Amino acid sequence: MLVSEKFPPSKGVYTLIIHVTKAEKLNVGRFGLYYFPIGYYTYTGSALGKGTTNIRRRLTRHLNRRKKLHWHIDYLLNARSAEAVAVCFAKTSEQMECSVSTAIKMLPKATIPIRGFGSTDCLSGCPAHLQMFIHKNPISVIRAVLTAYKKVGLHPNLVVLRAIGGLESYLKVKSNIHLSKVHV
Predict the structure, then answer these.
(1) Do residues 55 and 12 make contact, with C-beta atoms less than 8 angstroms apart?
(2) By residue range, what is the domain housing residue 60?
(3) Strand ranges, E, within the chain
(4) What is the rounded distance in angstroms from the CA atom of residue 14 to the CA atom of residue 45?
(5) What is the count of structural domains for the chain?
(6) pLDDT per position as a tens digit, 83-121
(7) Which of 24, 32, 121, 135 sits at 20 to 30 Å (Cα–Cα) from 175?
(8) Other CB atoms closer than 10 Å to residue 2's CB: what's the count?
(9) How far is it, in rounded angstroms, from Cα 44 to Cα 101?
(10) Does 101 or 50 have the greater pLDDT score?
């Protein structure tokens, strides 16, 4: 099954969980040069547009390394040291990107590494839609993201893009999480 088939052709909100395996300075287009330390990052976005802008198309684009670099997140995702390890998403026709991003930002150990990253067009005044976690364990970050989605009243779905030891046993306890495993 293709990765894109795991994502619905529906409107919604999503959070990419990204592992930066080696500290790296990246040019983020007009935003400039920024340092990305080793760690786990979350980037929250929305797919609410008409026609071609749905969760499936947006996430397929984000996960494809061959694309025109347009959004801030494109520069991070195209870095050699960055790997998307999982995606959390929820179907909704409401603008929930800022609510989810704010809920993630409020979690323990979440920091904003770059002010304005992913939020330059934000009407709610979010400081950023990219957060960094000092956790060394991806399960802790995934747990935090799932908690944030529930806090704002969403029903999260999780697509795992690479094997993460111990994740399945954690999710068995949380039976209301829909898990799709994809190895790319």
Answers:
(1) yes
(2) 3-181
(3) 12-20, 24-27, 33-36, 39-47, 82-91, 110-111, 130-133, 157-160, 178-181
(4) 6
(5) 1
(6) 999 999 999 999 999 999 999 999 888 999 988 888 877
(7) 135
(8) 9
(9) 6
(10) 101
